[in-house]
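User: What would this chain look like folded?
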Amino acid sequence: LTLLANLLGNTGRLTEAIPLYEKALQMRPDDQGVRLDFARALADGGHRSDAEIQFKKVIAEAPGNQQAHYYLAEMYRVSAPPRT
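Assistant: Here's the prediction, encoded as C-alpha cells.
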C-alpha cells in the first residue's frame, strides 16, 4: 500500500496517493517510515502545512529521526520568506 502511495506521490498524482497514505497509517499508526514518506509527498505537492504536521508527528515519536528534522528544515528553508 505504501509503495503504491509513494509511486503515485512521486509521479504527481498526490490526490490519489493521500487516501492510500492515510489508510496505511490507519493500519500501522506507529510506522514512522510511512508517516515520513507521507510528509515528504505532501511537501513536494505543495501541501506544506499538512506536511509540517506529519513531520512534527515523526519528530515527536522519534526525536532522533534525522531525516524528519532535515526535511522539515529544508521545507522551512525554501519557504518564502524562509522560516526558522
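Residues 14-27 form the longest helix (14 residues). If you want, I can go into more detail on any region.
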